[in-house]
Amino acid sequence: MAQQYCVGVDLGGTNIKAGLLDAEGNVLSRLSIPTETERGRDRVVDNIVSAAERAIAQAGIKRELVAGIGIGSPGPMSHRRGLIINPGNLPCLQDTPIREITRERTGLPTTLENDANAAAWGEYWAGAGKGVRDLVMFTLGTGVGGGIITDGRLLRGHFENGAELGHILVNPGGRLCSCGQNGCVEAYSSAYNLARHAEELIAGGRHSSLEARTDAGEMLMAEHIVEAAQEGDDLATYVWDRACYYLAVATVTMQHLSNPERVVLAGGLIAAGEYLLESVRRHFRALTWKLLDDFPEIRFAALGNDAGVIGAAGCAWEAHRLNDW
Amino acid sequence: MAQQYCVGVDLGGTNIKAGLLDAEGNVLSRLSIPTETERGRDRVVDNIVSAAERAIAQAGIKRELVAGIGIGSPGPMSHRRGLIINPGNLPCLQDTPIREITRERTGLPTTLENDANAAAWGEYWAGAGKGVRDLVMFTLGTGVGGGIITDGRLLRGHFENGAELGHILVNPGGRLCSCGQNGCVEAYSSAYNLARHAEELIAGGRHSSLEARTDAGEMLMAEHIVEAAQEGDDLATYVWDRACYYLAVATVTMQHLSNPERVVLAGGLIAAGEYLLESVRRHFRALTWKLLDDFPEIRFAALGNDAGVIGAAGCAWEAHRLNDW
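^ Those are the sequences you sent over. The predicted structure of the assembly is below.
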C-alpha cells in the first residue's frame, strides 16, 4: 500500500511543533510541546521523537501509511549529514545527528532541513508559491531569513549556507549587522533592526513622536515604527522607507540572480499589510532595469504559523519522491 | 558504438568559433570564420551549420562518433525553446529557432545556451572549476557577465535571465548602468565602465596623469587606468579600487546566495593579474561576515579564448548525459 502521509517537525528554541500532512499539504493533526532546552540534550531529543509520534497517533493513522518524517531545524546544520551543528538558541543540541536518531527510534525515514529553507519549501509546495518552479522567500522577523527554490529544487550551496538572503549587501559600509558585516539588508529590513535603527537616530538627537516611548525607557518594537510612520512621524517614515527600499534593492538583486517568477514575503513584519507591500513594490519598480520585463510578482506568504510544520513535511515528501532520505 | 565527441559553436557578432571536443574537454579541432551579419540571416545560419560541420571534418572523425552540437549565443535567447530572441550584435537572427535548424541540417542533436552560461559551464567542466559542484563566474569585459552553477546545474531562472551577475545592485543610486539601473556592479567593475568612470571624474575637474590622453581626445581604456594606478596616480587608484571593491561586494552577496566553493574571474580585465586578484581578495576579507568561515576561493579562469567553444561543447555533453537535448 502506498504511503499517504508525512510528519513535519518544526524545532524551535521554545517549542517543538509537529503535524501529520497528506500529499496535498492538508494538515491532519497539529500539536506544540515545550522544547525544554534547559533539561538538556537527551530530553530535547526525546521531545522531538515524541512530537513526531504524537502527530501520527493524534491523526489516528496507521503507521504503515506514513512515508517519513521531515525536521526543520535552526542553523548552522547540515542537511547532507543530517546533523544539527551549533544553533544559538539550542546549544544543547550541538553536533547531534538527529536524522539518524529519529530514524532509529521511530523506524521511519527522516530528513533534516534548515528551518528557513523548510518554510520556503512549504510556501512553494502548498502556499503562496504553488504552481511556480522558481521562488524566493524573504522572512522578515528578528533577522531576515530566506529560501531560494530554483527549477523546483532548494538551493543549498557548497557549504550548505546558501540563501542567507538577510546578508545580501545592500548598503556597503552601512549599519552594522549582527553577522559582522556592514550594510546587510537585515540591518535595515528586519522587525528587530527597524526598531533599533529608529532608537539610534533618536539617541543621535533626531526628534520623533516615538520619544514618548524611548524617554519612558521603553524598547521600541517594529509595530511602533509602523504606527508612527502611518501617523506621519518623519523619523519613523524615514526608517520605514529605508526598510522597504533596501528590501526592494535585495529583490532586484534576486531578480537578476535566481530570476524567480515569484517573491514571497513572510514573517512578523508582514502584519503591516498593504503598507509594506505597496512600498516594496513601488521601490522595486523604481530600482529595477528597463532592459527586459522579467519582473517577479511580489506577494505575502500564505501559510502563517503552520509554515514550519508544513514545510518540514513537504521536505519529507520531496525526499520520498526522490527516494533521497 | 558510444559517441565520443561533441561540437562546440561560439556565436559572436564578428566571428563564429567552433571546435570538436572529446568527453574530457580536449580540443581536437578549432576554427574561426566570419559571422557575416551584414549578409543577413540565411547566410549567418549557413555559417553556423558550416562551422559545426567543418569542426568535425577538420578533426577527421567519423560522424557516428559525434554525440551532438552545443551552440553558445548572446542573449536574449531561450535555452528551453532553442530560440535566439533579439541579441544586440546579431539583429539578423531575431526570433531564429537555431536549435531546430541546426538539428535538421546536420542530423545531430543540438542544444542552445546563453554564451555567458556556456563559458561558466566550460570552466566548471574543464577549467578553473574542475572538481567543484558550486561555482560562480564573473566575466569582466565590456559588461560584467556571469554564470552560476549550483549542485552541478546551471541556474537559469524562470525567465531564463538568471545569473545576470553584472546587475547586482552594489551601490543603489550610484553610477548609471547601460541597463537602466543605478549602482550595478557592471557600472564600476567592467573594463568599459572603469574607463568611463575615470573620464567622468576628469570631466568633473579632477586632475590625473590620464589627462595627457583625454586632452589629446583619446578615449581611455581599462589598461590605461591599471597602468596609471600602478604608477600611483590618485584618480586612477580611486577608480581601480572602486572596481575591485564593488566586485568584492558582489562576491560577498554571492557567498550568501549560491554559497559557492569557488568564484572564478574571467574576461579582459584579468590581464591585470595579481594586481586585480589581490585587491578583490583583500576587500572581500574586509567585507564578509565573521559568523561562519564559508569563504569561496577566488581565482582566475583557466580556458582563455577557448572558453566559449569548450563551454558550448560541455553543454552538449551535459545534454547528452541527461538525454535532454
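Chain B touches chain A through 50 residues (CB under 8 Å). The mean pLDDT of chain B is 97.

Shout if you want it in another format.
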